[in-house]
Amino acid sequence: MSLLLEMFTYPFILRAFVVGILVALCAALLGVPLVLKRYSMIGDGLSHVSFGALSIALACGWAPLPVSIPVVVLAALGLHTRQAAPAAAKQPAPLSDTERRVLAGIGPKPVGIEELCVSTGLPMSALLGTLMKLELTGRVYKQPGQRYVLR
After folding, report:
1. What's the number of CA atoms in the CB half-sphere (13 Å) around residue 22?
2. Contacts for 12-20 with beta carbons within 8 Å, 24 or more apart?
3. CA 32, 34, 37 angle in degrees (round to 5)?
4. In angstroms, rounded to a whole number, what is the distance separating the alpha carbons of residues 100 and 106?
5. How far is CA 134 from the centre of its chain?
6. Running DSSP on this structure, what letter comes out for residue 56?
7. Is the N or C terminus of the chain more exposed, i.e. has fewer CB atoms within 10 Å?
8. E-assigned strands of the chain?
């Protein structure tokens, strides 16, 4: 315990501790909205862009920060413009026969997998694969207890 208290007598340790607390506060406040908006992996991707830009700059003998910062900013802008593309321009993929049968069996009330298997006449493996594809495309929503409803 005395070692820990002795460390806090140094001003740079105290400043580092204060900055760490401030960064933790900012990360906590910003983290939840970023995760809810599904932006949580963008920072990881941009850090990899930065690593690549730093490596290339060092290999070419250039100053790394003046090279990597514009590259990361351009990558972030590229991601933003790619995500901001109008959704109306994208046409949904046509549904297969199996997907139509599954969607016909799902209504506004939650339906279990067993009921869907009986009503559609599909084997369980085909039904589960189709439900996963429909869930990933946003056509159905999976509720707790393996129950599905239309979106």
Report:
1. 6
2. none
3. 110
4. 10
5. 19
6. H
7. N
8. 111-112, 140-143, 147-150
Q: How many residues are there in the chain?
A: 151
Directed axis angle between helix 113-120 and helix 97-105, to 10°?
120
Residue 149: both structure tokens together: 């409803």
Core vs surface per residue 91-100: b (16+ CB within 10 A) or e: eeeebeebbe
Whether the pLDDT of residue 124 is over 80: the answer is: yes
Does 84 have pLDDT greater than 70?
A: no
**Are 106 and 140 spatial neighbours (Cβ–Cβ below 8 Å)?**
yes
Residue 111 · residue 103 · CB < 8 Å: no
Q: In this structure, are strands 147-150 and 140-143 parallel, antiparallel, or unpaired?
A: antiparallel
Q: Which residue has the tokens 């959704």?
A: 87
Start-to-end CA distance of the chain, whole Å, equals: 57
Residue 147 pairs with which residues in a beta bridge? 112, 143
Using DSSP, state whether 1 is helix, strand or coil: coil
- Written as six digits, the tokens of 6 are 């002795």
Name residue, tokens 């730093």. 54
